[in-house]
Amino acid sequence: MNELPEHVRKNREWWDHLAPDYAAGGERAWARDEPVWGIWHAPEAEVGMLPANLVDKDVIELGCGTAYVSAWLARRGARVVGIDNSAAQLETARRLQRQHGLNFPLVHGNAESIDYPDASFDFAISEYGACLWADPRRWVPEAARLLRPGGRLAFLTNSFLMTLCAPDENGVAATDRLLRPAFGMYRLEWPTDPGVEFHLSHGDWFRQLLGAGLEVEDLIEIWPSAGATTSYDFVTFEWARQWPSEEVWKARKRG
Ligand SMILES: C[S@@+](CC[C@H](N)C(=O)[O-])C[C@H]1O[C@@H](n2cnc3c(N)ncnc32)[C@H](O)[C@@H]1O
To answer: Residue 206 CB: number of other CB atoms within 10 A?
Structure first.
């Protein structure tokens, strides 16, 4: 545990603490057949996070939490591995595996350094997992290493714009003002909790991905459908209908 980078240690404790609050959401998501994404439950048909054919593909979920995304992928025929930094989150994931009769490897570890050989996977995915809580200078090259040539990476995280507009206070939604500088943003610690997050400008994401040998194929800014709701309080529907609150990056390993 002491060998883990400081942000990984902090996030491990924080997510072990948060895990009970994520169990009910995990249960609901495991019970779904059709994937939906992010805090607005954007349908897969709109976002296209997943490759069309996952049958017999090797897939890894980076920061799987309760592993509902992994479950959706396994049901589509993929050979899935879920990795997560929190033992407590993985405990929920294992309980839901038993409940739903699905079995795939769940690894307790840091997505910045994964114990699998180079080119082990066809697809890597993260929804608010490693893409938000791990250091992109470490997890992006690690994801690229694990992908086969032509393999794909897709991740969904908070939009950079929303992070600029989010007040420090807990429970106060993003405003229509820029509250923090864009330049110099990378690692972000909120004064209200001990977690460490990573929020990159689009330029920084491009450089991380391209530098790791990944070609950017798409950047989708999520526009919630009329009537969409969320249980999270850091952004309102009215805000998210005017500006992107979430973004999806899709990239492909060169070769
Ligand atoms: C919000 S959950 C993501 C899972 C799920 N998609 C969701 O939205 O609930 C964030 C997960 O990222 C995991 N995580 C944070 N840092 C990580 C790291 N360095 N390596 C692997 N997982 C990490 C946490 O333990 C937590 O389970």
So the answer is: 16
